[in-house]
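Weekly structure sync, notes
Attendees: PL (lead), two postdocs, one rotation student
Agenda item 3: pending single-chain targets
PL asked that the sequence for the first pending target be pasted directly into the notes so everyone works from the same version. It is reproduced below exactly as submitted, 504 residues in total.
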Amino acid sequence: MQYVMKFLALSIFILLVGCKEQRVPEIAKKPNILFLFTDDQRAGIIGAMNTYDVLTPNMDTLVENGTSFTNAYILGATTAAVCSPSRAMLMTGRHYFNIEPNVYAQFAFPLEDRGKSNKLTFPEYFKANGYNTFATGKQHNGKDWVERGFHHVKSAFLGGMTTHFGTKVKDYKPETGWSEPYQQKEKFSSEVFADAAVDFLGSYSGENPFLMYVSFTAPHDPRTAPQEYNELYPSDSIELPKNFMPEHPFEIADEKIRDERLAPFPRTDSIVKKEISDYYAMITATDAQIGRIVKALEDSGQSKNTIIVFSGDNGLAVGQHGLLGKQNVYEHSVGVPLVFCGPNIPQNTKVDALAYLHDVFPTLCGLTGLEIPESVQTKDLTQVIKGETRTVRNSMMYAYNSWPGDLIEGKGRKHNPGGGHRAVRKGDYKLIVSAKHDVYTYQLFDLKNDPWELSNLIEDENYAAVKDDLMNELKKLIAETGDPADLTKKEFGLFDNPEAYRFR
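Predicted structure, written out during the meeting:
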């Protein structure tokens, strides 16, 4: 009964964020933008998507009030910190092979590069077009691009991962620079960032439209949600995913890195159930804070003229295929939620068009009437959202490689040097090519009939033509995206030319 009562208490947020009459007339200006971004939230981890048994009443309301992309993905990464290139692609609308990084793969965009075509970010672009820009939460690509893109920064975490109680954050204003770091040890990270967003909405009085970038650090580990959310998910009540495995069936890139060593090998039912329990608790705790932010938007009178985008920076295995992390190209790790709500956006609509997370930049341009910059390499999803076309691409590629920075410096790697994956999806079929040492492994899945990627069809002669078609498509996409991978060489040519695998 206590779990039911807690769920009912959480569910009242639905009432707070549902559609209702505004208290002020709609403002005749370009729409505001509220971007809500989670860290390591897998596609389908929203109750309304009916894939996983997780409580997300506020995310559910966003799905009900907007258009959701059920086939949204990231392109991938060549670093175990997948979120960094993912966020860089989101910011620039460019494939990560064509973005200049710093040595730590944090994709800093130096001030001296201001205006260069491959450095332009969407907050900077909207700022230059009259938007009042605000950011809070995780900023994983260095300080310079934050300074360029935002008028106001409150409670920003500059880094990749951190504790969720006592997160060290900073504020920034152009006229005063960065504050000293400070902490709120009694507050969960998502609450700290929601506080900053709510304060901005409560005090905003500008005539210009605003762009808010609210970037949570949850549900990234350490998965330490407030206790009341952990109580919602007793470990013994968690259902294991259909593709749970004690170990991955063959050796792959980065299978023993930090993310994978969070639990012992082989995986056991009880350990994975506990990992899933903690993961769900983090998501539900963050969902409650999303409810606070959308309620503040409603109270501000701006919601009818605001585009809300909800997404995550990458997925996470959490026990699927014998893995815990995101350093692979299975659906659970490259798939992300992607929801658009707002004026002239169809409600309670799910579309299956193939979409990249870094389509967001050109799509926001399309939805607000701004010209798409020439630097952007991805697609505007506006016509899909409006129902004018079913798709903007017929295929897409996914990529992952061990980051070769240590190889370049001649230090080697402590765990699993080398290895990588390339994958392509076309229609219902997906081909994964994995390279490790001298071994290439091929997997072919029919995602319509096998969404859990369990039945490898690569040896089935009935699918020989499908394999050949997908392999040709993959080679074409590798060339189009600027990927240096060579599918004829050991580990895609990583060791032959490690410099080529630096982000460019």
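Discussion points:
- The longest strand covers residues 66-73.
- Residues 1-28, 102-115, 408-412 have pLDDT under 50 and may be disordered.
Action: rotation student to compare against the earlier draft before next sync.
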